[in-house]
Amino acid sequence: MIFALLLLAASAPQKGRLVVVAVIDQLRYQDVLWLAPELGSRGFAGLGTPAPMRYDTVVTETAADHAVLSTGAYADMNGVVGNRFYVEGARRELVEDPSCPVWGAPQIGRSSAMLRVPTVGDAFKLGTDGAGRVVSVAVKDRSALFLAGASADLAVWFELETGEMASTTCYAPGPPPWLPQHVLVDWKDWVWTMSRPDAIARLVPQARNEGSRPANDVGAEFPHPVGNGKIDKRLALAARNSPAASTSALRTASAAVKAMALGESNTTDLLFVALSSVDGVGHQFGTLTRERVDTILRTHDELGAFLSGLRARLGKRLSVLLTSDHGLNPTASDERRLRVGQGGTIDLDGLIQKLNRALDEQIGLRREGWVLAIDGSQLWLRSPFPPKAVQAAVEVLRREPGLWKVIPADEIDAAESFVRHSWFAGRSGQAMLVTRPLWTMKKAADAADHGSPWNDDALVPVSLQAPGFRLRRNGVIRATQIAPAIAALLDAAPPAAALDDPAIEHE
Ligand SMILES: [Zn+2]
After folding, report:
1. Which of 57, 313, 439, 464 gives 435 a disulfide partner, CB atoms 3.0 to 4.6 angstroms apart?
2. What is the DSSP string of 200-258?
3. Which residues are CB-contacts of 292 (< 8 A; sequence separation ≥ 6)?
4. pLDDT of residue 15
5. Do 179 and 231 contact (CB within 8 A), yes or no?
6. Residue 374: its pLDDT value, please?
7. Which residue has the higher pLDDT, 2 or 236?
8. How much is the average pLDDT of 215-228?
9. Same domain, 492 and 424
10. What pLDDT was estimated at residue 10?
11. Are 238 and 218 contacting, i.e. CB atoms less than 8 angstroms apart?
């Protein structure tokens, strides 16, 4: 009898579903329109015609916006005010958490504990008594952690400190046997060349961008020596900021799907895949560059192949939603070259020096400087400081031609929704800085940056391939509609603070 039952179980068809959410770091809506001829009739990663989606926040940055995608709420609710914040004079990454040591680097700790509201994965776990698996695989720690949440089965990323795909002891005591090891070996001698030389040269005739700031000795134009024969910290940095990192992350995602039998577990599983190579390349080389275009096309090719493999196995049991966390502002040199005159660049270091000088004159000399940082579109003064120091700083900043508005803490409540959404009292700085459209506020070491509420930074694509569902195409989708959409794909109710309507509807 038992034998017969076992036989029956073995021959029963595998059931289960897989929901994949892919997030391409720094993919602009305009990227997929401009590159549409190269992407082919099936669109980016084979996911069809994208719709535009906007983030209604000033802090269009990786940590903040991945948290918006997973929670359905902005920083004012979810607490993730940017990639970094400042406590008692010290800079802290939002993902820093000594209580969750990283595998192989116990001196650093990482978690999503700064989230003040649950992710869609957290709600799914709570709603099903943990039945469905939730896994995230990313290039960056902040993408993996803020998409997944603390309740996930695993959140894994490419860890710069170890040069390995890694997670923390809060998810598992150490790397599971299936996790790809020593991923940098693949890139030790890798020279990055263009995947489609003719098409890319036609799209971007200039081989070298005037404003490019290549890092880690990879050179200013193709071919780029990402590997130089040595496995070291330089290779980890060069690989992370090239197409290599996304390739390694996708290989890890494939290994996770196979080893964990995602989608084959008689329940519904959720897999996040967050690929950041476009962002690493865009910051170094700029918006309109061969390097950035090649990285977008490689991501399209490789993610498309990964999804085709899943589709072949799971068929209608696979649902895929793709979007991005933010865009990228055009560089001032491209704006000049193409005679678009409204934009410009604010040099962050120069602005901080100017503020320090003004406050030295008006409040009194302070050798260590009054300004701790301008980061995540926020001004952070060094404690202690008198209230008049904030007023003086705001007055100086309001005279900057590239700043549209400067909003101190006590004026946030009366400001635009994108300003209010960016602010979490007690965690944000002393004032919010909003650049004018086409202006970039950046460090000299970067070619290009993002971090404004305007369309270049805030408008991204969203695509869907899910049996029985389609995107709502009446107007621009809101970023807060993604978490409810993921919940709908999971057949689950949205997480606690995701109050918006889903971005998708039944066909
Ligand atoms: Zn970025």
Report:
1. 439
2. HHHH---SS-TT----TT--SSSSEE---S--SHHHHHHHHTSHHHHHHHHHHHHHHHH
3. 278, 281, 282, 285, 286, 328
4. 85
5. no
6. 97
7. 236
8. 97
9. no
10. 52
11. yes
| Residues 47, 29 contacting (CB under 8 angstroms) | no
Convert the pLDDT of each residue in 281-332 to its tens digit.
999 999 999 999 999 999 999 999 999 999 999 999 999 999 999 999 999 9
Confidence band (pLDDT; 50, 70, 90) for 14?
low
Report CA(277)–ligand 1 centroid distance (Å): 10
Of the pLDDT bands very low, low, confident and very high (cuts 50, 70, 90), residue 27 is: very high
Residues 252, 156: contact at Cβ < 8 Å?
yes
Is residue 380 in a domain? Answer: yes
Q: What's the gap in Å between 364 CA and the centre of ligand 1?
A: 36
Q: Domain check: are 156 and 266 in the same one?
A: yes
CA atoms within 13 A on the CB side of 416: 15
Residue 168 · residue 99 · CB < 8 Å: no
Q: How many domains does the chain have?
A: 2
Do 65 and 175 lie in a common domain? yes
- 328 C-alpha vs ligand 1 centroid, how far in Å? 8
Centre of ligand 1 from the C-alpha of residue 478, in Å: 20
Distance 19 CA to ligand 1 centre (A): 26
ipTM, two decimals, is 0.99
On whether the CB atoms of residues 380 and 348 are closer than 8 A, the answer is no
Same-domain check for residues 49 and 144: yes
DSSP code for 495:
P
Beta-carbon contacts of residue 131 (< 8 Å; ≥ 6 apart): 267
What is the reported pLDDT for 6? 52
348 φ, ψ (degrees, to nearest 5): -60, -45
CA of 26 to the centre of ligand 1 (A): 6
Secondary structure element (H or E) that encloses residue 29, with its range = helix 29-34
Share of the chain above pLDDT 90, in %: 95
Using omega within 30 degrees of 0 as the cis cutoff, is the peptide bond preceding 384 cis? Answer: yes
In a domain, 246, yes or no: yes
Domain, as residue range, for 383 = 344-435
pLDDT at residue 9 above 80?
A: no
- E strand or H helix at 371, and its extent? strand 371-375
Q: 466: CA distance to ligand 1 center in Å? A: 29
pLDDT value at 223 more than 80? yes
Answer yes or no: do 279 and 409 share one domain: no
Query: How far apart are the CA of 61 and the centre of ligand 1, in A?
Result: 6
